Amino acid sequence: MSHTLFSEVPENFFSPLASQHRQHYSQLLMRYYRLFETFSTGVERELVITSFEEYITEESGLTSSALDELLNDDEQPSDRSESSGKLSARNLASAFLRRLIAYGWMSEEILSDYTQVVNITMWSRPFYAAIAEVIEGLDVEYESHVIGIYSSVCSDAAAEQGHHAVLNALDHTRRLIESLKTLSQNIKTHIDTMFHEDAEVKELLHIHYDLYMQEIIDKAYNRLKTSDNLSKYRPLINKALTGFLGNEPWLSAAAAKLAVIKNTSSREAKALLIEMIKEIRDELRNIDPILEDIDDKNRQYSRISTEKIKSHLYADASLQGKVKSIVQAFKDDTDASALLQPNLTNIRWFSPEKSLYYRRKRQDSEILVQRPKDVPFDLELMETEMLMRIRNQLGPEKIRNFLDEVCRNDGTPTPAADIIEDMEDFIRILYASAYAEGRENRFPYRVLWFNELIRTGRFEFRKHSFVPTSGTRGSSDNREVHTS
Questions:
Q1: DSSP letter at 439?
Q2: Residue 211: how many CA atoms within 13 Å on its side-chain side?
Q3: Which residue, 237, 259, 239, 235, is CA-closest to 247?
Q4: Which of the ends of the chain has fewer CB neighbours closer than 10 A, N or C?
Q5: 32 near 48, Cβ under 8 Å?
Q6: Which helix H or strand E contains 482, and what residues bound it?
Q7: How far is CA 87 from CA 21, 60, 96, 221, 416, in A?
């Protein structure tokens, strides 16, 4: 029967970390793990209980009754005698220790002097390390791995103990690649978090300049970009590996020693040794795409973070801010046109009293120009204009192409009233008039104005026509004006 996870660990091993009180269990486990790291022969039981008691009384944030209730949840048989009444903090600590021993996270031993010590079980050791790394943050290390590879294959010991040199170098190589991939994935996690973050500027700055800088830039990225050990040692490592592959006596001697360790034939050990050397060489050669991916993701994070902050600081000037203004206008339904007009268009409005149907520099006093109180028409105009801007349909080149299609081919004036069929045509005519007035020699059409108002459908505007031109127009003082 093949080995499985639960053929090695107790079935309820993960129960503490899967319960509703997993936060407290994880803290107790970490308290014990830190004690265990300081002792060579296990931790005395009294020290563990004292540490647990300190957490219960000082850091847990729970009342004694709440902790008593916590202990009664999924309680072990050995706890039931004590849990019938209200327990003291020390009794609770002792009960929690017995429970973690029963779950398989620890084992208890009595020494020859009758001292009770608590040790880590064989199967729980990697889980303690994993919890510690998650809680304290994983340091992405790569420098020591590069040095480890170099020390293994380029030292004098590699000549006599080649099998150990290659095994150690392969282990460091895999750890190096793992560290770089972890760094890349950590940046990706921060990108996803920032992309979906909807916080104020203060919080965004904290996430970028405190959390991201501390966890990514300071811990790993700066060392990755500023240290020269990778570029310095990689050529030397590759040279040594190439030398191993071309040294038949060295391969035979190292393979014979490797065969003893792996309990296999010398022929199979030699093939394995060559495969490991090639893997080290190829992984170091293919490390550059990973580094480029890390750079790209770091730039992507910085770009997203900056755009998030800018969108909050300059909300009214951005497309996002304009859309927000439209939504707010529909929600409030109060003078919506006055709210939207300064944000969505630079073309001044016109009224029956006087024509304003041409582009001119906007003054501060002109931002809220009086115009007809037709809010539905205003909103439709603003929404259509914004959508056309998004589709890039209102640039000079696109407007010129539009006029080329709708104006007469013989060069005679084409009335604007003959062109307008819908709201998009009306907006294009607004821009065409502005370009013809403001760009002169740079725009291949000029506009002829008439001193009367006309109405076509629901659109009312000053009568005018468009004429194609291939030369330079006269000044604005000499432009052609016709009266009806």
A1: S
A2: 16
A3: 239
A4: N
A5: yes
A6: strand 481-482
A7: 18, 16, 12, 50, 90
Backbone angles phi, psi at 164, to 5 degrees: -70, -40
- pTM (2 decimals)? 0.47
Q: Which amino acid is residue 454, in one-letter code?
A: I
pLDDT of 272 reads 93
Q: Retrieve residue 338's tokens.
A: 């006055």
H helices, E strands: number in the chain:
21, 7
- Looking at 137-211, list the stretches that DSSP marks H as alpha helix, in order from N- to C-terminal side: 143-154, 157-160, 162-196, 201-206
Beta bridge partners of 44: 117
Q: Check if the beta carbon of residue 116 is closer than 8 Å to that of residue 43.
A: no
Residue type, 205: L
Instruction: For residues 12 and 99, give the distance between their C-alpha atoms in angstroms, rounded to a whole number.
Output: 11
Domains in the chain: boundaries: 5-136, 143-311, 319-482
User: Can you read off the two tokens belonging to residue 198?
Assistant: 């909807």
Query: Are 207 and 199 in contact, with CB atoms under 8 Å apart?
Result: yes
Strands 481-482 and 445-456: parallel
pLDDT along the chain (484 residues), means of 10: 73 86 86 86 88 83 60 50 59 89 90 86 86 66 81 88 91 87 83 78 74 69 69 88 92 91 90 93 87 86 80 59 62 53 43 41 40 65 81 85 88 89 89 80 85 85 85 39 38
Output the CA–CA distances (angstroms, integers) from residue 263 to 250, 267, 269, 276, 468, in the order listed.
20, 12, 9, 17, 91
Q: Which of 237, 276, 282, 281 is nearest to 255 (CA)?
A: 276
SS3 of 265, please? coil
What are 246's two structure tokens? 């071309």
Tell me the CA distances in angstroms from 32 to 42, 45, 107, 148, 222, one per residue in order. Answer: 10, 10, 12, 32, 34
Task: Give first-to-last CA distance, the chain, whole Å.
Answer: 102
DSSP alpha helix (H) spans, 104-161: 125-136, 143-154, 157-160
Structural fold of domain 5-136? Arc Repressor Mutant, subunit A (1.10.10)
Tell me how far CA of residue 336 lies from CA of 88, 255, 376, 394, in angstroms. Answer: 66, 83, 9, 24
CA 404 to the chain's CA centroid: 47
Tokens at 337, concatenated? 């046109």
Exposure string of 26-36, with b = 16+ CB inside 10 Å and e = fewer, is: eebbbbbbebb
Alpha-carbon gap, residue 327 to 304, rounded angstroms: 24
At residue 289, the pLDDT reads 87
Burial class (CB in 10 A: 0-12, 13-18, 19+), 188: middle
The encoded tokens of residue 46 equal 């009294």
For residue 410, give the 3-state DSSP assignment. coil
